[in-house]
Every structure is written in C-alpha cells, then in structure tokens.
Amino acid sequence: MKKLSARRRHPLAALVVLLLALACTGGLYAVFAPADKAKADETAQSLAIDEGKKLFAVGCASCHGTGGQGSSDGPSLVGVGAAAVDFQVGTGRMPAQQPGAQVPRKKVIYTQAEIDQLAAYISSLGAGPSVPTEAQYGPDGADIAKGGELFRDNCTQCHNFTGKGGALTHGKFAPSLEGVAPKHIYEAMQTGPQNMPSFPDTTLSEQNKKDIIAYLNAVNGDDTVSPGGLELGGLGPVSEGLFAWIFGLGALIAVAVWVAARTAKAKKS
Question: Any idea where the Cytochrome c domain is (predicted)?
Fold first, then answer.
C-alpha cells in the first residue's frame, strides 16, 4: 500500500495529467473551433461564384455564351470586372429586353445579393474593375467646383452641362444622369458602358471621379434653383437657341409689321 501511494504522489504525475488535459483541450478546439477568417471568406466567395454561375446560365448565357465568351448577340464578359456587372444589372439595363442601338435603363429585376453573385462569377472569368466603396464615391472630401470644371471638360459634349443627357448618332443617346446613384456614376466612368468611353484612374483619378459626382449631386439636387431663372429644361444652347429664334425673332417680326402698318396709316392720313 505504501509503494502504491508513493507512485500516485510521484512528482511527474501532475505533469502527465496536465499534458493530457492540454492535449484533449487542443483536440476539442480543433474540432469545434470556427474556421479562420481567410478560409471563411474563401468559402463564401466560392459559394457566391457557384450561385452566380447558376443565375448567369438562366438569365445571361443565351446572349453572352455559356462561359461568358460572347456571341453574335452579346459581347464577351471576360475581364469586364465586377463594376461592369453591378452597373449594367444594377440599373436594369441587363438582361436586355431586345437588341437595339442602345439599351436603356429600366426596372431592376435582380436583388443586390443576386447582382453580387453574378459579379463574383464574372470576376472569376478574368480580372477587371471592382465595385467601388462608399469612401470612393461619397461626398466627404469632394470639391464641387473642381468637379464642375472636370465635367465640362470631359462630359458635357454628350451629357449636357448639368447631366440632362442628349442625342447621339444612329439612334444612340447619352442618358440623363439625374437620379442616378453615385455608385453607378462612378462605375460608368470606370467601365465605359455602351457608347461611353472609360475613364480609368490614369485619366480621371479617384478624387476626380468623386468631385464630378459631387458636382452632379449639387446641380441636380431637389432644392437646386437655377441662378439664371427659367432654364428651359437645362438642355443647353440648342433649346435656348430655338426659343430665341421662335419667340425672339417672332416678336421682332410682329414689331416690324406693327411699325409698317402704322407708317402706312400715317402716310394715308
């Protein structure tokens, strides 16, 4: 009995028990602990790509090909990036109802979660511009005056000086930018949808894009008042010139006729 009691009180016994307890704890943690963040993000991205591929097969493959390689009815989507998908699908332009000179904005049929999944799948086909964050297109730190200058230099030729839009050739048009989400304006500058040229960061920096968006929000806000009074729709020199020709010239003709009539009467008398 004394020998057995001595073995139980051996100094190494406590150390062995501690090691066994640590080994059990570590094993249980390895089994039940959540995956690390990187692995969790990778899994979520993989699931998003799989779901996006299913959505693409139903709503997009008939025009863009089963692998996004393009066809006679739609361009290749390899390398367009997530921003292009978020813009085209998020503004309702895609899926297109029918082919034409230009696909207009219409009601959005996908949820934002589904759009994100489609964007994840298209991004997996080839690298391209990513969806911007609010810090990139938000109003904080924006220079409205600089944005107006940049917009007049780069955009007014098509979109008019306040973003009201305008006609192009062969049935195409520059759409109105009034009421368009800042994120989608940023994405349009990034990707150059349809007839619009792209403005990468080497042409217009992130700050430049932020400034332009701030300018458009300023001139198209709900409480904006035209400093020049009646703006004739804000469509620029064409509508204002037409107004001048019809009403201005008409008024001059009316005055000339009145003067001639009075002169004729004066001569008779």
Answer: 47-126, 142-220
